């Protein structure tokens, strides 16, 4: 459930705009709510005045601090969080950070969002300092107020909230996925105004269709968005380079970039640093070991160490560990091998094991059985996002496995009683096939010394890296 609160001088504009269309239907279905609050209702002024002249002179009027603050307090009370900045409060302003798909995805995870719409020449800085957590602009142009930008943001955020769009996949696979614009699409009739639907789309050859679509996406992006195109090409160039350097060792970085999850923060002939903001994971590798100190220094260039608490770092060479330790406080360091499934064909699935997606009702059970983490919040998020799968036997759970936030297969656990019966193998095969069907290259990590898991990877046909990688958890 997502609750939007809009602080505005034109509440009717929001109510009218949000009543109709897909968002209106989502509100009716109780998936989201939109409440517009009239800032004018919170002024003490008997003429309901909310604006005044700016000190120091200048054109136009400013919205005053007291009614805006009082309105915000009222919203906080509605959300049940009256103690300051506990609810993200977004001020729409051309001076803000540009609104992008990534920000929409991040905000879609919140339960409550407050939008503050400015008018006149702006709002008294002092109240902004006290209540605003995010300054956001929807583009490099100036509008008369923040209402349209707030509605633009709510629309983009809402369609990412589960249940708002009915086809679960579409929100993920459209424009801006992986830096490319969407390919052209066609529907019936097969010929219209003398134009035929491209033959390849009628061919029924799924792989050819995908290739054609990618080619079209790349072409369009090159033509209309040179900025995105350049970013895409740079990623492709490093993906090719890493594939040559070692597929098993670098498949995590390759797949993270390919799937459009991470961004290259820094890369050169010395090394690469990729950041997956949503997963809170950074991946780092050095190509020239004599430059390990320099590459380690790419982590946390800005002084935002506080923000990186709880992040994980996947270190691809041992020689990076010592210089990294100098820079960042480490909580733990886990040596792992990386295993990659290099074939395109599905793994045969044993028929006698029933596997299905697990919901959050399994959180307690999963936490009780999974030895690798006590991060409850993380496992809850994995369950919520449909990324944990259970194998069932005798009417109950016999084991589970899933997909980590940064894209690797893992979290494999088979209950004592059900071991050595092929359940682990079935779970991993299931996940491999799932990723193959999504066009991904399946991969995972094996903790050093876990002979059973190494053996399983071999049986399933995965290639294991010769070198170790290090999963480093940063101190919270
Ligand atoms: N208010 C006025 N213009 C705006 C813009 N471009 N983005 C966000 N808020 C605004």
How would you characterize this protein structure?
- It is a single chain.
- This protein has 476 residues and is α+β, with helices and mostly antiparallel strands.
- It folds into 4 domains: 2-158, Alpha/beta knot (3-Layer(aba) Sandwich); 177-224, Trp Operon Repressor, Chain A (Orthogonal Bundle); 247-336; 354-440, Gcn5-related N-acetyltransferase (GNAT) (Aminopeptidase, 3-Layer(aba) Sandwich).
- Helix content is 36%, strand content 24%.
- It has 17 helices and 21 strands.
- It has helices at 11-19, 21-28, 65-79, 101-107, 125-131, 147-158, 170-173, 199-202, 206-224, 226-245, 247-258, 292-296, 321-327, 363-369, 376-384, 423-437, 451-460, and strands at 2-8, 32-38, 51-52, 62-63, 89-98, 112-117, 134-137, 191-192, 195-196, 263-267, 271-276, 281-286, 312-315, 330-341, 354-357, 388-393, 396-403, 409-414, 443-447, 462-464, 469-474.
- The strands form 5 sheets. Strands 10, 11, 12, 13, 14, 19, 20 and 21 form an 8-stranded mixed β-sheet that branches. Strands 2-1-6-5-7 form a 5-stranded parallel β-sheet, with helices on both faces. The protein has a 4-stranded antiparallel β-sheet with strand order 15-16-17-18, with helices on one face.
- Helix 3 (65-79) runs parallel beside helix 5 (125-131) and helix 10 (226-245) runs antiparallel to helix 11 (247-258).
- The longest helix has 20 residues, at 226-245.
- The protein is globular, with a radius of gyration of 26 Å.
- The structure holds adenine.
- The site of adenine has 11 residues, from strand 5.
